[in-house]
Amino acid sequence: MGLLVVGSVAIDSIETPFGKVNDALGGSAMYISVAASYFTAPVRLVGVVGGDFPQEHIKFLEERDIDLDGLQIVKEGKTFRWGGRYHYDLNMRDSLYTELNVFEKFNPIIPNGFKNSAYVCLGNIDPSLQRQVLERVGKPRLVVGDTMNYWIESKPKELSETMKFMDVLVVNDSEARLLTHEPNLIKAAKQIIKAGPKVVIVKKGEHGALLVTEETIFSAPAYPLEDINDPTGAGDAFAGGFVGWLARTDDLSAENLKRAVVYGSTLASFCVSRFSVEGLKNLTYLQIQDRYRSFMQLSRFDER
Amino acid sequence: MGLLVVGSVAIDSIETPFGKVNDALGGSAMYISVAASYFTAPVRLVGVVGGDFPQEHIKFLEERDIDLDGLQIVKEGKTFRWGGRYHYDLNMRDSLYTELNVFEKFNPIIPNGFKNSAYVCLGNIDPSLQRQVLERVGKPRLVVGDTMNYWIESKPKELSETMKFMDVLVVNDSEARLLTHEPNLIKAAKQIIKAGPKVVIVKKGEHGALLVTEETIFSAPAYPLEDINDPTGAGDAFAGGFVGWLARTDDLSAENLKRAVVYGSTLASFCVSRFSVEGLKNLTYLQIQDRYRSFMQLSRFDER
């Protein structure tokens, strides 16, 4: 078994209308790993940081039982840093700076002990690197991949090639539209399925998520949060909850994929309630189960 | 009992990337009445048209068992006409022309036989007219009201006064935000509840609908249509299905309100699949029930 997570590890400075944080833990692999760590352990992380990466962050990841054998520390380099400011409408944000630093030359080296991972989650990184990861591991049972508008626009060929090796593509609604030039999300998802992934998950932020396969469509609501403090990492927390649940249960049935989508939404809802990964700290499995059941209440109606 | 519907009756010319129609039946009261007519009969319509209103439309409404005693026909006048063109992304449209004609001086006269209506649905018209209607009827069991950005911006005081007499306000997401200056939809809905309506329904188009009361939040999915031909009237068809179901069952429990939201979504999904009111013609109750059950499938997941 085992879940391998590959992606960025960053130090973020984030400002929203509700507060700000400096030098906080960030990056796609980070959010994915922390969210997944509530379902399966140890989560195997592959990423790169610089010598400036704070020891307290390492300590937190170790406490979450995240295996850091694949975390390269480039002593003389600096960690990937991102700064962003969100508008009053949290759907809009400005990137203030993006310093790739050691992440610019990231070579995803997979420790031998990670190569047999049955579950692989590829955070939003260069699609060529995503493919390299897949060439360096055995035959996983499930490959979940994320991407973003930057890669869709700048590396369409590489992305299209990499998508053929993904079982599940997780994208947001605007990315699904950009990828397919199709405004109808259901049509867009079906078009993506033709390009490789058997399962497409369209994350719609405050509107929930859609799971689309050849045979099934499932619509999950978003948790009706009144206090969203920081949307950073919500999509990655979703992916982490999703793949974490699948790795825990090792059940890829349509019914269990639906549950995984709701667990993904559950972790995303915790994530955005606080800054950085704070919302994903100190959760209990009982809290997660409780919120899962709230999702059931939220969307349940009966026949008559 | 009885359901009273007041609003616009129009002749629409609509163009979308998938086709066009000229001189088709339109208007808020029209879509609401036709959708509701699948649940309760006769639906009592109050509106105004000109001498140019085609006899075939009258015939259709009579066939749907819609009581036209309250439909004023101003022989020497012309019917309200609207022309619109939708973009490839159907969420965007341009109004090509809006000729109010006889609708400009609409005085909603309520026939005596309509005054005891237990259910009243106020289509999107001037909030002062909506209030006049309420002053002219007895004490209904439920008042459902719609509005739009035009009234929110041009008649905020009148709207705010009228909202106090609505039990259910049906708005779309951008209207809810505009009305409250609050980007978070849950907070916006709760703010509206403080202003009068006990129930707020936020229609989110392709993302479904939210039902918010003081105690409950319910999230209904949208039907995953691949072929949407004309979004015109979707919100009104939703309101018609919603209030029609409530009038049929005369049950205002939280559980039945949820069902009503799904019946609203059901009628909206039929509406947009064809042009004008074509998608609301010749439905059977069995078809409606079948689609209702599809909505259950779409959003159902279990515990484990």
Short summary:
The structure is a homodimer of 304-residue chains. With 304 residues, the first copy, chain A, is of the alpha/beta class.
Annotation keywords:
homodimer; 304 residues; alpha/beta; nine-stranded mixed sheet; four-stranded mixed sheet
What topology emerges from the helices and strands here?
Two copies of one chain form a homodimer.
Chain A: E1 3-6, E2 10-16, E3 19-26, H1 28-36, E4 43-50, H2 55-63, E5 66-74, E6 80-86, E7 93-99, E8 119-122, H3 127-136, E9 142-146, H4 149-154, H5 156-163, E10 168-172, H6 173-180, H7 185-194, E11 199-203, E12 209-213, E13 217-220, H8 234-249, H9 254-272, H10 285-299
Parallel strand pairs in A: 1-4, 1-8, 2-6, 4-5, 8-9, 9-10, 10-11
Antiparallel strand pairs in A: 2-3, 6-7, 11-12, 12-13
Describe this structure in words.
Two copies of one chain form a homodimer. In chain A, a hairpin with a 2-residue loop joins strand 2 (10-16) and strand 3 (19-26). Chain A has helices at residues 28-36, 55-63, 127-136, 149-154, 156-163, 173-180, 185-194, 234-249, 254-272, 285-299, and strands at residues 3-6, 10-16, 19-26, 43-50, 66-74, 80-86, 93-99, 119-122, 142-146, 168-172, 199-203, 209-213, 217-220. By secondary structure, chain A is of the alpha/beta class. Chain A has a nine-stranded mixed β-sheet, with helices on both faces. Chain A has a four-stranded mixed β-sheet with strand order 3-2-6-7. At the A-B interface, helix 7, strand 13, helix 9 and helix 10 of A face helix 7, strand 13, helix 9 and helix 10 of B.
